[in-house]
Amino acid sequence: MERLRKIIHIDMDAFFASVEQRDNPELRGKPVAVGGSAQRGVVAAASYEARKFGVKSALPSVTAKRHCPNLIFVKPRFDQYKRVSNQIREIFAEYTPLIEPLSLDEAYLDVTENLKGIETATEIARQIRQKVKEQTQLTASAGVSFNKFLAKTASDVNKPDGMFVIKPHQAQAFVEKLEVRRFFGIGKVTAEKMVKLGIFTGKELREKSLEYLVNHFGKAGQYYYEICRGEDHRQVNPERIRKSVGVENTFKTDYNEPDDLYRELDIILEELQKRLQRSKAYGKTVTLKIKYQDFEQITRSRTSQLLIMDQNTIGHMAYELLNALLPLNKGVRLMGVTLSNLEFADEIEGRQLTLDF
């Protein structure tokens, strides 16, 4: 019989917006959107005061302002968010080396065997949340269970500044009552498809056979079959690495002239270089992302057979991808460049580095 593990999922509450409210007392208690502006762009994060009006991440700024006329837009400070995130991870590391970050503001922790010899995961989660609040003046929510799916789902139950525990004997009843739209790994489109098939909760999902779920949802059907039974065999992976490093900018005005686009591309490439240097990452695939004024979005990619080790090559490939789209018959509101198929300096140290010119 597989040994049950003790898994905690920690999720910071409205992280970017909370950092801004902490650092600027004038923003406290007010609806705040990080990213975008009253006229353009999209919301990267929203405070809970803004969420009450339906403002959420990825919402166009114009729509957000319409929902919440008093919304305050704040420019993101990713360096500051990274510093705070590192501070929080240092707290995690006091309890376990098995930490799997999902983003700057959330992570899985395996505390089956913890560094402090604490008997229960619930107590560890309580201590972590308390230390986070004391050291950062920010709140975190936690989910505690015996696998990643349940811990992730549990962390959302008592948000913000809350904790929820799902013990082994409680798992089946919890999952059966859970609406499919709240299942981690089931997106909006899939949830709508399930509802049309008469699947509203985990109970109806469990009633479907594996064959039925695979026929209707492809390979993901196996995952749905397992999670509706409270099963998730994925381990907490501290070696989890980023899949890509990228930068994108939303412009103040729409551009379709080549000189304007080249200028903005240079700005993006300069910032991308800084991020690659900080992460000590190299890659093989360069992707250009374009979003037009009518919100149509396209991507174009090129992949090198060899690892790209210099910024000039990334820039050359990005320029070629842009040139292939010119001339444009409509304005561009957003452009981005991403490097993927990554390897990191500590992985390739000692191997001969191949420069791709």
Automatic annotation (TrEMBL):
A Gene Ontology term for the protein's cellular component: cytosol
Cofactor: Mg(2+)
Annotated positions binding Mg(2+): D11, D105
Gene Ontology MF annotations: damaged DNA binding; DNA-directed DNA polymerase activity; magnesium ion binding
UniProt cofactor note: Binds 2 magnesium ions per subunit.
Coiled coil: none
Superkingdom, taxonomy of origin: Bacteria
UniProt keywords, alphabetically: Cytoplasm, DNA damage, DNA repair, DNA replication, DNA-binding, DNA-directed DNA polymerase, Magnesium, Metal-binding, Mutator protein, Nucleotidyltransferase, Transferase
Name by which UniProt lists this protein: DNA polymerase IV
Entries under PROSITE patterns matching the protein: UMUC
Keyword field contains Transferase: yes
Compartmental location: Cytoplasm
Membership in a protein family: Belongs to the DNA polymerase type-Y family.
Record site feature (Substrate discrimination), residues: F16
CDD domains found in the cross-reference section: PolY_Pol_IV_kappa (cd03586)
Reactions catalysed according to its record: DNA(n) + a 2'-deoxyribonucleoside 5'-triphosphate = DNA(n+1) + diphosphate
UniProt-listed Enzyme Commission number(s): 2.7.7.7
Active-site residue list: E106
UniProt subunit comment: Monomer.
Primary location class: cytoplasm
Enzyme's top EC category: transferase
Gene Ontology biological process terms in this record: DNA repair; DNA-templated DNA replication; error-prone translesion synthesis; SOS response
Domain UmuC: 7-187
Function, in words: Poorly processive, error-prone DNA polymerase involved in untargeted mutagenesis. Copies undamaged DNA at stalled replication forks, which arise in vivo from mismatched or misaligned primer ends. These misaligned primers can be extended by PolIV. Exhibits no 3'-5' exonuclease (proofreading) activity. May be involved in translesional synthesis, in conjunction with the beta clamp from PolIII.
InterPro entries, sorted: DNA/RNA_pol_sf, DNA_pol_Y-fam_lit_finger_sf, DNA_pol_Y-fam_little_finger, DNA_polymerase-Y, DNApol_IV, IMS_HHH_1, Rev_trsase/Diguanyl_cyclase, UmuC
